User: Fold these one by one.
Assistant:
Number 1:
Amino acid sequence: MRIPSGSVLNGDNFLRLEKPDDKQLRQNNFKEKTEKLRERERREKKREREREREREKRDEGERARREKEREIQRASAISLLAIES
């Protein structure tokens, strides 16, 4: 029976011995993945803030438009009343 390189026979199973480089690689991969995840979360938060700003601008524009319509209706009603009297 041949034992794979970097492994130890334990009963009927092979246990893989980690090389120091493997541990460092896993730590680096973990750091990279967590940093990518954090960066993605930052981008998502930034997009959400931008969407919220756009929503607020749109709502403000809608409010201003409705207020103008009300003013026009009031002016029309006043002018109709003035004409009738």
Number 2:
Amino acid sequence: MAQLVITKALSKTDYANKQAHVELAERMKQRDAGSAPALGDRVAYVIIKGGKGVAAYDKSEDPLYVLENNIPIDTKYYLDNQLSKPLLRIFEPILGDKAESLLAGDHTRTIQVSTPSVGGLMRFAVRTATCLGCKTPLKKGESAVCANCKGRAPELYQKQQNIVNDLEVRFSRLWTQCQRCQGSLHQEVLCTSKDCPIFYMRKKVQKEIQDSTTTLDRFNNPLYIKNFNPSHPDLKYHYIAHTSCDVMEERAAMKAQDMYLGVLFSMEDLSVYGYMTNTKVKFITVLTVPDVIIKDLDMKNVFRRIHTAYVNHTSNPFYDIDSQKMIKSKKFEQEIEAIGRGRALEGGNRSSVPPAAHGP
């Protein structure tokens, strides 16, 4: 992506002809005035695919927005305007008139285009979940694999887990490289340099991790995740909740009553607690490690309140318990908010309680 970025200074807004960077700055201002480029800033942009006859200034877009939404790049624009002439100058002395055949022909007809998530017909598209094995549309109640591929579920789960692991290693290496660049391995990376190839690689891998983790979560279908600690990214708790489900399955084997499973595992600054109902609904709570010891009785009370809120929500006759959809009830949100804030007040500012409910 960094090799395709064009950067121009926003020196004025009243050009005689429309300019790509000026039009983009105006669109970014409409999206978020706080983060939009101001007069005197340099505007980085790439050219994206557009309809036939659309001017280049209408196809300019913020590189980060393109990465986050899988918007396809206008490869023909870059080939015709930035690559063709230098390539022809290099190969003409060798190939003569045949040099132009490098840029046209059968070998140029196969291209890969990512599916955008915004704009065009995508606003009218209906997403359908497909089986991770055979890609057939899933029926109601199926979250990861169809009935025919159920026997392959462990294999598909391990395959997806390996993908997530590889992406996490890649992200860690890129993150460390950015930390070394800023001169500290113990602070958050604040760099937003849109001229750096590592910056875009890091953002791209971060997006891929989120997508891959979402796919992985289909095996343990999260129904609700709440983060009470804004200093920790949601993705961190998302991953912890998913990892905890495997530990809970091991501990809860051969038992059929409501269970408080205690501390599942601990990290440097976090402790993870688990609770499972007799219908195999899992509740996971992550606490930042405080200076005082947290009693099991207190945690049991927290889980009972979360369980009660869940039961009250599912008792609604209009709620489809087999829908596999995330819980978006305002009343349920308020009850979880009250539980989390109450726990935070008891333990001071040191505690955060992001509960996660997972389907069976």
